[in-house]
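Thanks for the sequence, V.! I ran Receptor-like serine/threonine-protein kinase right away. Repeating your input here for the record:
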Amino acid sequence: MMARFASLAILYLISHLLLRSSAAPSVQHTLGTGSSLSVEDHERPFLVSQDATFSCGFLQAGDNAFYFSVWFTAAKNRTAVWTANPGAPVNGRVSSISFSPEGQLALADANGTTVWNSKTGGKRHLTVSLRDTGNLLIADPSTGRAVWQSFDWPTDTLLPSQTLSKDKKLVAGYYALYYDNDNVLRLLYDGPEIASIYWPNPDHNVFDNGRTNYNSSRVGVLDHTGVFLSSDNLRVEASDLGAASVKRRLTIEQDGNVRIYSLNAAGGTVTWAALKQPCSVHGLCGKNALCEYQPSLRCSCAPGYEMVDRQDWRKGCKPTFSLPTGTTNCSEAPASERFTFVQVAATDFYGYDLGFNQSVTFEYCKSMCLKMCSCAAFAYRLDGRGNCFPKGVLFNGYTSPAFPGSIYLKVRSDLNLNATAPQLSVHATGLACNRNGSRTAPTIRGHVRTPSGGTKWSYFFAFAAVLGFLELLIVAAAWWFLSSQESIPSSLQAGYRLVMATQFRRFTYRELKDATGNFNEELGRGGSGVVYRGVLDKTTVVAVKKLTNVVQGEEEFWEEMTVFGRINHINLVRIWGFCSEGKHKLLVYEYVENESLDRHLFGKDIGKSLAWSERFKIALGTARGLAYLHHECLEWVIHCDVKPENILLTRDLDAKIADFGLAKLSGRNPIGNGDVADTGVQLSHMRGTMGYMAPEWALGLPVDAKVDVYSYSIVLLEIVIGSRISDQTTTDGAERLEMWQIAQALKQVVASGDIMSLVDNRLNGQFNPRQAMEMVKISLSCMEERSNRPTMDDISKALTACDDEDEHPAYLS
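Predicted structure:
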C-alpha cells in the first residue's frame, strides 16, 4: 500500500512539473505567426537572439508606460538600441505585441488601437526572429528573403554591421544625425522655432572639416572593432579600438551629441564622442540664453532676460524690458524707449546675422545696431580685423574662454542690471612664451558696461601687446593714474582694467582659501606639495597647489613666478597665478580633469587601459612639451621630475606636463645650433623620483636638460609595455644594475625585431609596430651616457615624423 502511495506521489510531482513547464515556455529566438506577448508579462522577453546578446520585448518608460524595444541582454539599465514606438508609449495593462496569422507584427494599446505595425500583412507562413546582430527580422522561411527588418528603420542607435544611408537618420528629440543633400554626414538641431546644423563645424567648409562631398553613395557603417567609416571621408575610432568581442553601439542622445558606447557591466562606457565641447550643440539652452561648460554644462539667461519656464531651459528666456514701438530709427525713439548696450565677454550667438561688416570701427558697429530696431545685439571680434556682426535673433548662445570677442546686448537704458548681473571678474591668461613673442588674449568673465571708447582702446591694447616692454611701462603709468585720479571716467577705467587683465595674476591667501573651501578637496600630493580643487569666481575650476619646503624670499619667488606666467604651450599645464604671503606659497593651475598617466597605465581598472593611438599621442605630446621647455622658451626650464604622475590627461587624452615646483630656472646659454649649452647647473639637492632619475644625480655631477631626457625614456618605455619598469624604492646601485639589464634586453628586441613580445598584452596585438619600434629605439638612446643622449627637440621631431608617415596604421592581429 505504501509503495503504491509513493508511486502516485511521484507521478503527481512529475505531472505538476510538466504543467509548470508548459505554463512558462522557454524564450525563443524565432516565432511563427499567431505568437503574442502581453505587457503584463514584460519581465519575459518576446524574443532573444540565438547567442543571447540581444533581447526584444517591453521596456518600461514610466509608471505605467512601455515601449516595444530591442536591448543588450547583459546591460542592467536595458538601454534600447531600437524602439518600435518612440514617443508613443503604450499602457501598462492589456497592451500587447502580436505576430498575426497574416504575418504582420503589431503593437496594440490598451484600448485596442494599433500604435505601430510592420506593414507586412497579407503573407502567411512568415517568421519573426531576433538575430545575433540585434536585427529584428520578419522573413519568408521558404526563400530566406527578408520581408521587413528593424535595421532599415533605425531610431537613435546604429549597431555594428547596420548601415546608415541617405534614406535613414538617427533621431533623439530635436536632434538628428543624417546625410545632407551635399553627401556630408551632419548633426542637425530642428527645434520648434529654428533649425541649424552644428556638426561638422559650420564655420568651416567641407574640406576644412576633413570631409568630402564628391562621394554620392552616402553610407556610414560601424564595424565590430570600433571604427565608424562614412562615405564623406569621416573615420572615427573608439578608444578601446580592436577587440571584436566587445559589444558596441553608436547613439545620438537627447543632449545632441553622438557617442560610441562599449557594453560593460554598468551598461556602457563612452569610447568616442562627436563633440568634445557640449556647448557646441545648438538649442540646448534655448532663445536668449547662454551655454557654458565649467566643467559641467550650465545654462543662464543673457543680462536683461529671464527664464520662460523654470522647468525647461530649452524654452529659453524672455526680455524683462519692452521692445521699441512707433519708430523706424531706434536712436530717435523717445527717452523712455532708448537703448544702451551690455557687454558679455568671450561670448557669441551663432547665426542670425543681419549682415556682416568688415574693417569697421567698434563705434560704427555699435551705432549701426542702435539705429536698427531689429538688431538685438552685435558681436565684435577682438581679432584685429574689425569684424562686426549685428544679430537679429539671439539663438545658440555660448560662452568660452577661447572665443576671441564679445557680444553686446541691446537693453533699455533705464534697465537696472546691477541687482542681477554678476560683477566683473578677470582671469589673466598670461604671456605666451614662444618664438614670435605673441601674446594670448585676455579672458574676461562677467558682464560689464560697454566702454565708450571701445575701438580706440582695443587697438591701443593690441599695439601695446606687440611692444612688450613698453606695455609694462604703460601698465605702471595707468595704474598710478587710476589710483591718483578719482574723477577719471568709468569707461576709461574699464579700458585700463583690460590692460591689467593681460598680466600674470597674484592671488591673496584668503582668495585661494575661499576658492578651495578651506582646502577641502584634495586632488593629489607629491614631494613638492599638495594639490586641491578650487573654483574661482563661481565659474572656473582650478587646481591650487600648496608648496612645501620653499626657501625663496618674496622677491626671488616673484621672479620665478613671473617666468612661469610666461610659459604657455598646449602640452604644459597652464599656470594662472600664485600667492606668496609669508609662509604661504601657492600656485594656481588650470584644472585637468582626466587624472594622470599612471592611473591609466598602471591602475587596476582595466577599463582605463589606453588604446595604442592614445598612447602614441601622449608620448608625442609629452615630448613636445619638454622640447618647448628646453629649446623654445625665453628661459631655460629643467623639469627634474618627469614621470607618469606628472603627466596629466585632458578629456581628449591630450598630455599636459604638470608640476614645475621642482624645476630650477637657469640663464640660457645658446650654442651654435640653438640648443642649451651642455655646461650644466649645480642644484642644492637631489630632485626627482627614484626609478626615473638620471645617473648623474647620484654621481653628484652638474645636471642639465639631459636629466629630463633620461626620465622621459623611462616614461616612454612604460607607455609601450604598460607597467612600471623600475621599483621606486630600489637602492641606487641596484637600480643602475637593473637599468643596465633592461637596456640589454631592449637591444635584443631591436636586433630581433620582435616588438610584439614587449608591447602591453592588454592591447591584444592592436598597435602600430613601426611606432612601437621607434619608441623603443628612442628610449634606448636616451639611456646612454649624458653626452650621447638626444635632445627633446630631436625626440619630438623623430616621433612627429613617425606619426606623419603612418597616419592610418595597419594593426597586428
